[in-house]
Amino acid sequence: MLVSSARRYYVEEDYNCAESVLLAANEVYGLGIDPQSCVRLLGAFGGGMGCGGLCGALAGSLAALGAGMMAGRAHTTEGLKERCAGFVEGFEAALASRECREIKPRRFVEDGERCFDTVRIACELLEMELDALRA
Questions:
Q1: How far is it, in rounded angstroms, from Cα 63 to Cα 122?
Q2: Which alpha helices (H) appear in the chain, and where do they start and end?
Q3: 95: which of 12, 54, 56, 128 is 20 to 30 A away, CA to CA?
Q4: How far apart are CA 135 and CA 130, in angstroms?
């Protein structure tokens, strides 16, 4: 369900990778974030922060994970640091990098899908994490 929601945002509505992941997680998991805030807060993370750095799909996933776990401040949320570190490791294992400049040349397609394959993988990993939190 998370993947189909992210696909709608990314492919059909033309949001960037970071925005799409957070918007989809917010919609599917009821994170309680105003959708316009998702866009405003994550907009600068698309395209690896505009410079090919940290993958936007990873940034959006971490934002969703934080929103799903935190009840106060990050440093007082038990297990957040470890869960985020584990998520990054899993993402990097699945995509052989966490950097847009390394992932995009291998995953980007010119048929309108752009980097949806990367968004899909991020959402599949995120869905497992958020479902585990809810269990």
A1: 12
A2: 2-7, 17-29, 35-42, 46-47, 56-69, 80-95, 100-107, 116-134
A3: 12
A4: 9
